Structures are given as structure tokens and as C-alpha cells.
């Protein structure tokens, strides 16, 4: 077997709520392409045409992060108070460091461990004469900051949101708009906190920045990535993440998950790379106003996203900014335990990627997508928010923005 190759990925994902994950076996899943028949990316690498995109089997390697441990409670877990969750432990590769790495931080030794695995893998590969690569990837999965859709879902409640309000562009009084939802002031603050934490880690833990960045095309993810990483680039270089269509949240019905045009994205984030992903068409051809993507389809899409990255990008440290539902299904695709993320949170994962001898056969199952549920009899859509909170939406939003209402403390099962 060919030797392992290690890759470090930092992933941030954006979503309208905490996804309730459905258990199902990847081996029994029907495949799904992000676009209907045919998938424009089939047989294509990122930014290229006419070249086959490899397929991989993914396995989460545990024992490196607290988030791998079933005993760790995701509720209230704070990655900024736990060194990203990195477990302080020795590595076999420490013996190749001066003084066994005793003067180095945990992150320096861990990054060396990854590089050593890559070096050993290369030596084995060269010696064996085989061409297939087994690789180990370190993923930092991060969710976008709080968006206006998150506020609306909390205000109206899950039932009213799913059966009615999620299909609207805004409330009737135009207090807020949640189509392709932007970050609230609280969401921007959360992204600023992530930026501050990265700066602390760079200085105190000597952690290295990602070498490559990928981001969902939805505005809340784009802005989260920009605020988090924009001023961290070496020598003041421009922040240039690749915008990836497959990194978007579960799609359909909910207008918060309907993206804006590429022209609009360029106007908002002119340094972002929007011409590398052939799936990223000018207009949103994926979002469906009648049907909503299933968890199964979203899991397949996230696996294909990682396939496209692993096939092309050989960097060891990679960042992806996206959504809660997308992250939940991403974790499912790589065999990680369930670990819900609040807005602005990050989870690191070490993953083993093994090339498949034959590409997976992805089948369009859009006929299984779901329509919007009916609202319960007796649900008063005009007053449901006031009944829940004893205040109007404008007052509720103000409370969230000034910090007097802590909506993240509330349990919710939406997917955004």
C-alpha cells in the first residue's frame, strides 16, 4: 500500500442553525451530484477541465483533539479556551527534533509530526514505485458568525420558520432581510473574536496559518472568512480564498441559502477567487424554491467537495469556511462523531484519505428532496414571535445586537 500523505485543513462553515444529524451508512447511500444531470464538475479538477477528479474513502483519526472524544460535551465547548482542542501529547516524530522538541509548543510539534508523516510517506512511495496516495488531512472546520436568518429562526421558532418564514426574503415590516443572509453585528463580533484568537495562537502557540483557503459562496460565510483571516496574511498580502459552490449550506426553499450572483460576490469581496471552481456559475442554478436538499445528498456533496480539494491541493494546512448543516454532514462523511457547532465556532479533525480504485457512481436523487412542511393548525403566524418573546422583532434584534439576549444558549435544530 502506498504511504500516507498529510494535509492540514482549516474549515469554517456557515449554517442557519444546528443540524439534527440522521444516522445512515455511507456504504448504503445513493450518490448525489451538486447539480442535476449531469454534474458539470464530473471528471474535473478545481479550475481545470478534461482531467479526472479522484474519489477517496475518508476515516477520522482520533486521539489528537478533545472533540474526537465521546466524553467531550459539544454544548458550551469553547475552542478558544482549549487551544483549538489540541491534546497535549507526545508524538513519535518528537525524537527527530532538537532536544526532543522540549522547547517547542504543542502546535509546533504537531505540525512537525504532520510534515514528518508526509516525508516518510514520500520516501515509501518513491521506494515502492506505486503511484496511489494515502493521505492524512487536518481539517479545521469553522462555522460562520451569527446571521440575520439565525435571529429570525430563534424569534419565530423552528416550526414557524420551517413551514413559513424560511421561504420569505424578509419580515413583513422589513426589519431585517435574510435572503442570502448577511452577518449581524453579533456575527461580525464573533468573526473578530476568531481573528483575535488566531493572532493569539500565532504569537503564543506559534501555530502556522493555513496555506490554502476555501469558502462557501453564501455571504455570511464569505464575510466570516474575510473578517477572520483578512488581516492575517504574511507581509500584508491580499486574502484570496477560493469560492467553492459545494461548500454552501443545504439548499432549497430557505432563501437564506439562496446565493447571490458571482458579480455581486466580486463587488463585495474583490480579492476572492471566483473563477477556479467550474460549478460556480454566474447565477444560482442549484437553489430550488420548491424542494429542499436531503441530509444524504448534502453528505455526498461534502464528500465530493473534499475529493476535489484533495485531488488538486497538496498543501498541508487548508482552511474552509462554511455552515453548520454542511459541517455536520461533512463530519458524517469522514466518520467523525456528531459535534454541533455554535455560530463562529471551529472544530479541527485529522482525516485519513484513501483513493478508491474506481470512482464512486453518483446518482441524482433530487426526487427525494422534501417540500416545505405544512404549518400546524392553530399556529398564528402574525403573533408567533411576540407570543414567544413578549416583544416585536425589532426589539428582539436590538437585544441580540447589544448582547442582552443570548440566543446561542437556546437549543435549536434548524440547518443554516
From TrEMBL:
Keywords: Signal
GO MF annotations in UniProt: phosphatase activity
Source organism superkingdom: Eukaryota
Signal peptide: 1-16
GO (cellular component) term, any one: cytoplasm
InterPro entries named in the record: His_Pase_superF_clade-1, His_PPase_superfam, PGM_Phosphatase
Record's keyword annotation contains Signal: yes
Pfam families: His_Phos_1 (PF00300)
Protein's UniProt name: Phosphoglycerate mutase
Lineage of producing organism: Eukaryota, Fungi, Dikarya, Ascomycota, Pezizomycotina
